[in-house]
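Here is the promised in-class demo. Please do not try to memorize the tokens; focus on the logic of going from shape to residues.
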């Protein structure tokens, strides 16, 4: 993906969609699972997929996403060197890849940059991932 968004509810009554992307400008790989099954009545092949999420409480910015009082979760971004282990490794190797991205790997900002003006300066500073 080029980027993904999470809802920031720091304004109280509405959210601002907060965009995340790799700091180096390359596409990000988000971990997921995929399978297919055949609908018995029709024979149609039905794809099934999901993105893997992880607790984000320990991340300085991802922990601010989603409604207050709700579980803080974020997608699992894989580094290029980890793709083969995720796709072809053991379950233990894949599980070892489930970790929050370190500071400096991501950049963030409002999906609609003009919405950043809605946020008080201290909130905006807390949300920015600038390394």
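The designed amino acids, position by position:
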């Amino acid at each position: 993906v080029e980027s993904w968004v999470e809802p920031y509810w720091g304004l109280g009554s509405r959210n601002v969609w907060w965009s995340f992307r790799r700091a180096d400008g390359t596409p990000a790989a988000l971990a997921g699972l995929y399978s297919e099954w055949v609908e018995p009545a029709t024979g149609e092949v039905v794809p099934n997929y999901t993105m893997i999420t992880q607790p984000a409480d320990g991340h300085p910015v991802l922990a601010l996403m989603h409604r207050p009082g709700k579980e803080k979760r974020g997608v699992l971004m894989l580094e290029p060197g980890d793709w083969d282990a995720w796709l072809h490794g053991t379950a233990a190797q894949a599980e070892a890849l489930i970790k929050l991205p370190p500071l400096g790997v991501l950049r963030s900002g409002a999906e609609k940059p003009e919405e950043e003006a809605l946020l008080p300066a201290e909130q905006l500073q807390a949300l920015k991932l600038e390394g």
